[in-house]
Amino acid sequence: MPQSSSVNRQILLASRPVGAPNDDNFKLVETPIPKPAQGQMLLRNTWMSLDPYMRGRMSDAKSYSEPTEVGDVMPCGAVSRVVESNLEGYQPGDLVMAYTAGWQDYAISDGSMVFKLDPDMEHPSHALGVLGMPGFTGYMGLTDIGQPKAGETVVVAAATGPVGAVVGQVAKLKGCRVVGIAGGKQKCDYAVNELGFDACLDHHLDSLESDLQQACPDGIDIYFENVGGKVFDAVMPLLNPHSRVPVCGLIAQYNATSLPEGPDRLPQLMRLLLSQRIRMQAFIIFDNYGPHYPEFLKVMTPWVKEGKVKVKEDVVEGLENAPRAFMGLLDGKNFGKLVVKIADA
User: Fold this and answer.
1) First and final CA of the chain: distance in angstroms?
2) Strand pairing class (114-116; 78-85)
3) Could you give the CA distance from residue 287 to residue 303 in angstroms, rounded to a whole number?
4) Are the C-beta atoms of residues 239 and 219 closer than 8 Å to each other?
5) How far is the CA of 77 from the CAs of 46, 50, 59, in angstroms?
6) How many of the other CB atoms lie within 10 Å of CB of 101?
7) Residues 192 and 278 in one domain
8) Does residue 240 lie in a domain region?
9) SS3 (DSSP) at 98
10) What is the DSSP letter of 320?
11) Pairing mode, if any, of strands 26-32 and 7-13?
């Protein structure tokens, strides 16, 4: 899509979705490129991240962060180049990871939640996935809450997504048996043949519960929860005494407009947590672990370079295609970390 050098394309939240988002919930507008004031810098976004948490920001329900207001730019993190800087420590040409950039070509930043990147980084988009918030989430949730030990069984849903893929691969590096759960044979084959999982189960199959029992004959010691729904229902009976359940997301429920059908599962879960002495802990990555980000990079960066942790991206070209890609993400249509290329770096 041709773009004037004086135009900033933005995708706004046009209305709050009821259930699954649709085209009417987004609006593409063109505005003048903003000018940075003192203590600010102008960023040219080159790669932007699409993540499930954004669905929560579209709602006005109480959550861990403020909702996006109708008419505001949709939130996201982006890899960006500094175009103009009135902010000490940043110069034009610097490559940065900006966690508050938004769905737009250009953004103004005061340096908050901005991290400098290697200007010659071979794959800048990795800062949105394996070396960014999703990879950080998977690594810290597994290692701090999960505390994996060699020989234990780890189960992770959305196994080929950016969080699940890191969880599974790091668990293997820690000597665990890893069982993934993913949507479809292609994703499951990738988890086993490329990522090195011991097994991967298709959650589309009606046999998920029995398949999981066969794959985990000694029960489950760690379940990394980022999906919820029927996957957690299948996992619950297999959780071992003193098992750990890090919780970072519930994508199966993000578009729900009512409680799930069937009996109330809360009493069953509470009894299970008590009788099995299970540690189930939710976390928001930068709230809980922000200061640990540099130490995470020191560990993960060489693993990626050495091929010990493999990376798969699902690349969408063009800012204007972000809404449709995001809607597909919530339906599990992406294969790998979903990123949008906005401009050449």
Assistant:
1) 17
2) unpaired
3) 25
4) yes
5) 11, 8, 19
6) 29
7) yes
8) yes
9) strand
10) G
11) antiparallel
Specify the residue for token string 């009493």.
267
Retrieve residue 262's tokens.
């069937």
Pairing mode, strands 279-282 and 239-247: parallel
Cα dihedral 138→139→142→145 (10° resolution): -110
* pLDDT at site 2: 36
CA torsion sign for 248, 253, 259, 262 is negative
H or E segment to which residue 174 belongs: none
What DSSP line would sit under 125-138, residue for residue? GGGGTTTSHHHHHH
Same domain, 121 and 146: no
Q: Is there a domain that residue 164 lies in?
A: yes
Type of residue found at 118: D
Write the CB contacts of 222 (distance below 8 Å, at least 6 apart in sequence).
Answer: 142, 146, 148, 152, 153, 154, 155, 171, 176, 243, 244, 245, 246
Q: Tell me, yes or no, if the pTM score tops 0.70.
A: yes
Element (H, E) at 339: strand 337-341
331, 312 contact by CB (below 8 A) = no
Residue 149 lies in a domain: yes
pLDDT (tens digit, 9 = 90+) per residue, 222-280?
999 987 788 998 999 999 999 999 998 766 555 555 556 767 777 888 888 888 899 99
Ranges under pLDDT 70 in the chain: 1-5, 250-260, 262, 345
> Cα 320 vs. chain centroid, distance in angstroms?
21
Q: Hey, is 159 helix, strand or coil?
A: coil
**How far is 212 from 152, CA to CA, in rounded Å?**
15
Nearest to 36 by CA among 115, 117, 106: 106
Q: Which two tokens stand for residue 200?
A: 């991967």
Question: Tokens for 156?
Answer: 């992770």
In terms of phi and psi (left: phi > 0; alpha: psi -120 to 50; beta: otherwise), the region of 214 is alpha
Buried b / exposed e along 12-35 (16+ C-beta atoms within 10 A): bbbeebeeebeeebbbbeeeebee
Assess whether 146 and 252 both reside in one domain.
yes
CB distance 139 to 300 below 8 Å: yes
32: containing domain: 7-129+312-341
